[in-house]
Amino acid sequence: MGDTPRRLLQRLIRRIPAQELKPTLEKWGRLSQAQLQTIDFTQSKWALTGKLGTICEERNWAVKHITELELIYVIDNPNLGMWHTFQLMDPRDNAHTVELLQFKEQFKSNLSELIRNVSVKIKKHTDEAVWIRIAWGDGLSQPNHFKPTYVVHYLQTPYVFVTSLNSKQKPLLSQALVLATSYHAIKDANLSGRKFTAIRDLLMRQYEQVFPRKFHSPLKERNQIVTDPHIEREQAESSANRLQMACEAFGGGKLPQLQSAVYKLETKFRGHNKSMTQREEPIRCVVKFASTNILESLRNCASSGIASTPVTPLLSSIPLKGRNYFVITDNGPGPSQTRQQN
Amino acid sequence: MEKVTATGVLNHLSLMEAQTRSSKDHRQQQQQSRVEELKAKVEELKRHRDQLKKEVEVYESVRTLRASMDSKSVHEEDERMDGDSENAEILWLMAKHCQVTDLLHAHRLIGGFEIIQTKQGKGLCVSVATSYEGVYLDRYSLEFDTKPTFRITRHNIPPFIPLNKLTEQSNMTETELKAFLHILSQHLNAYAGRKQQLQLVKEHHQSVEVMESNALCSLLVLLFTVPKKRTPVLCTMEYLDHIRCLPTRVYCQSEDTELPECPQWKSNCLLLMENPVHKALSTMKTMGHIV
């Protein structure tokens, strides 16, 4: 077995936590049950690497098999760092009928035409997500498997989620994606976060959204912690209203875990300081909200009365528009507004 | 004959007498237990009959109450049935519940949508319910702003339903909402129907493997196994018309190239074209075409 596959295997085994190793290998399916039984998973990682290394040599496996294993592990544990979202724009006529095989072939051939020495692996997950692993090389060197880019796309939706992409690789990836999905252009969707499932749930609307109803009973029942009939809450109605408005703005139940919201302000100064208001150029500043779950925090602010209700569109735009980076100019939220989703 | 004379005829006769007496007892015992069994069964059936009679009574009274409710206006709630007040209350509530459920169901059947005004008249919220084979599934909502321009502000419709295209196609305006809601409801109901079919296939037909599907449920590839020979057959169903729950094209492939051409499989393809997937699979199983 060559040096690269060996090093790749070593790094991978080190990365996978001990208790996940056996299930991941089972999912991979390339080792028979008998072989899995012979491996003692209580050994140290070093010993395990050695053992697996020998099996790989016996079976004559190459880099592509190891990357397969890596992809399987990453699909179940996608928290690899920052994920960024892109949105495809202007679908062509046949964009809605692009199916998996077509997409796979087109993407692979497009990318290989744009850059030589690139290694692409595509796998469809059970929840209809298409996972792509790209190892970039260039005209002179072999693909670098130690810094792969991961791309996730759901067919028939305009969203693409990417991690570990650098600025040189971005235009190549964009070109390949646009051609393979039959759209005209792709742009930054201004949504990023460390948890892949959170940004995906936000954009695919897979969390509980609350709409105005004539009868608010479900939320009211949730609010009733005190059942003692002698205690009457004076402001029960207004707090129920606030809760309803907060849930309408951000969602009910468990919310996707976004970590930050960034507002870049380029507005003129509005205040009492005369010298500042006389300035012609806009004041540039960046406001960043950070939390382990920013949507949960903002909803709590609104329902407890810290933030005024009805919730200001600056905050409610986060789940509504599916983005957490805004540029605010004097004319209103900036030119990089996303259009209504198709 | 020798033996009989040896033991004695009288002995033999007394033996026979004893035998008949014991068998008579045995039979009597059997009969007794059988009689007791039947008596118990009679009691049980009587109880069951009484219960059913009571249920019929309740149903009849609820029905008459309902009928009188339908013919009266909403405010005349004074009349109660004869009988003790508690029973009457419960019956009345049951009838009322029945009436409201029927009304809602009828409203949805005639293509009605739940619309409420929001933001002191400056907004609208519309709910579209989806159902398939008599079961209510997900409900989707849209919020509209009426001023300054009429537009959709918020919704929970999945991104693969082409909302923008539908608003353009149906010329959605404040007064002409019905056409847009109608076509949207068709798309959503068809999607919910296809999704439900896939779910039922996964639940009830585990011998059939789902090879490929997509988020919009507009493509389904299933792997069947033919009994006896165990040949695998790959069947692709394309649902190109997104407002229908049935496929627009079905074709089968197999290693044995003659198999898809035989009349058995041609009739299977026809079954899949004209029936919901889960029902077609049940039929195919009973006919013995697939495992």
Jot down its keywords.
heterodimer; A: 342 residues; alpha+beta; 6-stranded antiparallel sheet; 13 helices; 20% strand; globular; B: 291 residues; Copper Amine Oxidase, Chain A, domain 1; 4-stranded antiparallel sheet; 7 helices; 8 strands; centromere (chain B); chromosome (chain B); CENP-O (chain B); nucleus (chain B); Centromere protein O (chain B)
Structural description of this entry:
The complex is a heterodimer of chains A (342) and B (291). By secondary structure, chain A is of the alpha+beta class. Chain A is 41% helix and 20% strand. Chain A is built from 13 helices and ten strands. In chain A, strand 4 and strand 5 form a beta hairpin. The radius of gyration of chain A is 25 Å and the shape is globular. Chain A starts with a helix and ends in a 9-residue tail after the last strand. Chain B is of the alpha+beta class and 291 residues long. Among the domains of chain B are: 82 residues, Copper Amine Oxidase, Chain A, domain 1 (2-Layer Sandwich); 81 residues. Chain B contains seven helices and eight strands, in the order H-H-H-E-E-E-E-H-H-E-E-E-E-H-H. In chain B, strands 1-2-3-4 form a four-stranded antiparallel β-sheet. In chain B, a hairpin with a 5-residue loop joins strand 5 and strand 6. In chain B, helix 2 crosses helix 3 and helix 6 packs antiparallel against helix 7. The radius of gyration of chain B is 34 Å and the shape is flat. Chain B starts with a helix and ends in a 5-residue tail after the last helix. The mean pLDDT of chain B is 84. Chains A and B meet through loops of A and strand 4 and helix 4 of B.
